[in-house]
Design goal:
The structure is a single chain. The protein has 9 helices and 10 strands. The chain is α/β, with parallel strands linked by helices. It folds into 2 domains: about 5-120 and about 310-330, Nucleotidyltransferase, domain 5; about 125-305, Nucleotidyltransferase, domain 5 (2-Layer Sandwich). The strands form 2 sheets. Strands 3-2-1-4-5 form a 5-stranded mixed sheet, sandwiched between helices. Strands 8-7-6-9-10 form a 5-stranded mixed sheet, with helices on both faces. It is globular, with a radius of gyration of 21 Å. About 45% of the residues are buried.
């Protein structure tokens, strides 16, 4: 009955969780507010905030679990990918704690953990399953044959879906983080008001760079064209008036296209593999439009659809803990001299 203490510090969330025999006993997250005025995460500020938060967050996770540090059998931590300074804080803390307690250290890949967040609730997918993993930095379709046997079968060749949401929000003048605001305004808009082209990318891969460019020109030309022109068709004042008058419809139309790109590829992956156990993961899986759309398509396709609770969608330590649990059972331990990596492959 292993007790795992997990630490997540890959970006701007300082998180800790405790997992006992595969059950999450606590999941604490400290969100960093310092980045809002800069319109995005500032790596140096993120690292400093992790240093301030990590001890209180770990203490609270232990307190809520009812365990003491001496009850812990292993320390799991996010080893990659992420902001290197932020990762270093969590990695050094985890390594020092494991060394002082003479217990195993477990290195976890952040994206693998997002997939395994689907194994936290009692109602779990059967193997094999496909997972659409969508975040600010990654967009992937993963085939999972067991908790520790998974393969990326499709991924973005340029930008991530979450970045497309955030960059669109910035172009619309919405405050950071803008992705959730697009979801909010989209609920009041017409998703068919404006049409954005779906990229024709072969196999199961994605592309969002062209879509972002199309949205940029569309907004700069106040909806009259989404093609680059040396001279814009409208003045800045007309452009802002267009955005203000049509914000809900623009958000709904952009969200509709991003979701269709994601789910058309997921449907193709299901048809090619024959797998009907379908999961959603990653920060963008908190998007209400995506959650509803995958349920609708799942019903039409005969899928069994699994979506993590909101607290397990964005960056959190519970997903690190459940991954650490399975790696502990498989004795997949890391050396104490392991280094974090900003861009480690699976």
């Amino acid at each position: 009955m292993p007790a795992i203490l997990a630490i997540e510090s890959s970006c701007d969330e300082t998180a800790a969780a405790v997992c006992v025999d595969g059950m999450i006993k606590s999941n604490i997250i400290a969100t960093q507010q310092v980045h809002q005025k800069y319109g995005g995460v500032v790596p140096e500020l993120a690292s400093r905030a992790h240093l301030q938060h990590i001890v209180p967050v770990v203490d609270e996770a232990l307190n809520q679990s009812g365990l003491t540090i001496r009850d812990i059998n292993a320390i799991a931590f996010t080893q990659a990918p992420g902001l290197i300074g932020a990762l270093l804080v969590g990695a050094q803390f985890a390594k020092s704690l494991a060394m002082s307690l003479t217990i195993p250290l477990i290195a976890v890949h952040h994206m693998q953990a997002h997939v395994l967040a689907n194994l936290i609730p009692e109602h779990k997918p059967g193997f094999p399953f496909l997972c659409l993993t969508v975040s600010g930095g990654h967009t992937q379709i993963v085939r999972c044959d067991s908790p520790l046997d998974m393969k990326v079968i499709g991924q973005t060749i340029d930008d991530a879906a979450g970045e497309a949401f955030d960059k669109t929000a910035k172009m619309l003048g919405l405050p950071y983080p803008g992705g959730p605001l697009i979801d909010k305004y989209a609920k009041e808009g017409n998703p068919h008001a404006y049409r954005f082209t779906e990229p024709q990318i072969p196999a199961l891969d994605f592309s969002f760079s062209g879509l972002k460019t199309s949205i940029l020109y569309f907004l700069q030309n106040a909806g009259k064209s989404n093609v680059y022109k040396e001279t814009f068709l409208v003045s800045p004042e007309e452009r802002q008036a267009f955005i203000s008058a049509n914000l809900n419809d623009i958000c709904a139309s952009v969200q509709e296209r991003i979701i269709s790109i994601l789910l058309n590829k997921l449907r193709k992956a299901s048809h090619e593999t024959g797998i009907r156990e379908i999961c959603l993961a990653g920060g963008v899986s908190a998007n209400s439009g995506l959650r509803e759309a995958i349920k609708r398509i799942g019903s039409a396709e005969g899928w069994n659809v699994y979506i993590p609770a909101f607290e397990y969608c964005t960056d959190n330590a519970a997903m690190i803990a459940i991954t650490g649990h399975y790696k502990f059972l498989a004795s997949q331990f890391a050396p104490l001299d392991i280094s974090p990596s900003a861009r480690a492959s699976w």
